[in-house]
Amino acid sequence: MSNSSGQNIIEKILADANAQAKEIVDAARAEYDAAIESALQKAEKETSAALKTAEDEAAKAASKEISAAEMKAKKMILEQKQACLMDVVSTAKSKLDSLNDDEYKVIIFDMLGKAVSDPGAEVVFSASDKAKLEKEALSKGFKVSDETRDINGGFIVKKGDIEYNYSFESIISVEKENIEQIAAEILFA
């Protein structure tokens, strides 16, 4: 074998070794790049999921805060409405208590005209109202009961065992409950 052919063989072996080494390095580099790309994609997915979870939690917390603030505002509005209601009730009671005799009679007989439709019904007054109103009530065709009740304004209509309370206190109480129910429906709607 000649020296040049030995040289050629060595060069061929070295070239093959270098080519094989380059293939191994290229394969390792490709594997490395794929591993890095996979890790980056996984990290991006995890970061995205963590960000989404954080956004969801923030949205839930904000929603809770908004709901709490809305309920607090509704409660404050209701408290103001109730305070107004109490003022209206108090004013109504004061006005009823301060009616002169003529105004009081007009209101009572107007109420009697609307409340008493059955000729057999009896009207029960307080002792003081009975003394002031019985004569006129009888002259207007109302049947006045012999009994009296401890009421401050207004009257009671008695039909057998059934009584309908038209005392000022009872009327104001019923209207107050109606207004409170309306306010509650608004608040909790």
Written account of the structure:
- It contains 4 helices and 4 strands; from the N terminus they run H-H-E-H-E-E-E-H.
- The chain has 189 residues and is an alpha+beta fold.
- The protein has a 4-stranded mixed beta sheet.
- The termini are far apart.
Which tags fit this structure?
7% strand, 4 helices, alpha+beta
Distance between the termini: 105 Å
- Please give the share of residues in helix: over 70%
For the sheet with most strands, the description reads: 4 strands, mixed
The rounded Rg comes to 47 Å
How many helices? The count is 4
Given as residue ranges, the uncertain stretches (5+ residues, pLDDT < 50) are none
Q: Total number of β-strand segments?
A: 4
Order of helices and strands: HHEHEEEH
| Mean pLDDT across every amino acid position | 84
Strand line-up of the largest beta sheet: 2-1-3-4
What is the 3D form?
rod-shaped
Strand content: 5-15%
What structural class should be given to the helix and strand makeup?
Answer: alpha+beta
Chart the SSEs and their pairings.
Blueprint: H1 3-97, H2 101-115, E1 122-124, H3 127-139, E2 143-144, E3 156-159, E4 162-165, H4 168-187
Parallel strand pairs: 1-2
Antiparallel strand pairs: 1-3, 3-4
Helix pairs in contact: 1-4
In short:
Helices cover 76% and strands 7% of the residues.
